[in-house]
Amino acid sequence: MPSVSLLIPAYNESATISDLIDRSITVLKNCTPDYELIVLDDASKDNTWELLQEAKIKHPEIRIERHAINQGIATTFEDLYKAATKDFLFLISGDGQFPPETLMKCMPLLETHDVVICDRIYKDYTIYRHIISSAYRWLPRILFGVDLHDPGTIKCVRREIISDIKVISTSVFVEAERFIRAAKRGYKIAHVEMIQEPRKGGKARGGKPSTIISSVSDMLKVWWILQILRRKP
């Protein structure tokens, strides 16, 4: 079986982080003998960091890191990717909405695919968030001819895609940009279904106007470079 880095960004996740780490360790042990679990605390204001230190005592094999000041979710994702060392990277959120057990569905596909996207069967969103989510899916399909199905969800991705594909986005669109480029390069992408769990802690930040504006700006920049200038993905 391929080796796996399970990555968890955390910001004010004291309600969920301890249980999530316990579950993640159990899943990893059942999936592959060669794994690592890395948690990056993005300068939480609650006691998330203290709970991570307790988890480190319980599970000495995990790695915990912390930003001195809050960097935001996009930077935290990238820092986790840089810290990972295994063949495949599986990044889930610290709020517990994306069950680590989904990795078990991904593992059988990793021998023949480079990316496995975990499509959510149902999203517990407001009408406003459903509109944003739909636009986030359909705009890349219209602009780039690539259907990522559920670009805002979790993915299991070959590490070379992260290291070899250079991205320009600095917003949360960086995830979509990376897999648009991967699809255009011919990397094989598969999908599995996933049931998203209810939020137990933390606060959703994906619908903030500033997040939407920066994502649209990045999307248009990437569209100009790939579709108009015809640069290499």
What this model shows, in words?
The chain is of the alpha/beta class. 42% of the residues lie in helices and 16% in strands. It is built from eight helices and seven strands; from the N terminus they run βαβαβαβαβαβααβα. The protein has a seven-stranded mixed sheet, sandwiched between helices.
- Number of helical elements: 8
Morphology? globular
Helix content: 40-55%
What is the typical, i.e. mean, pLDDT? 93
- Number of strand elements: 7
Instruction: Report on the biggest sheet.
Output: 7 strands, mixed
| Alpha-carbon Rg, integer | 17 Å
Ends distance: 30 Å
Proportion of residues in extended strands: 15-25%
The helix/strand class is alpha/beta
List unreliable stretches of 5+ residues. Answer: none
Order of helices and strands: EHEHEHEHEHEHHEH
- The strands making up the biggest β-sheet line up spatially as 3-2-1-4-6-5-7
Give me some keywords for this one.
alpha/beta, 16% strand, 233 residues, 7-stranded mixed sheet, 8 helices
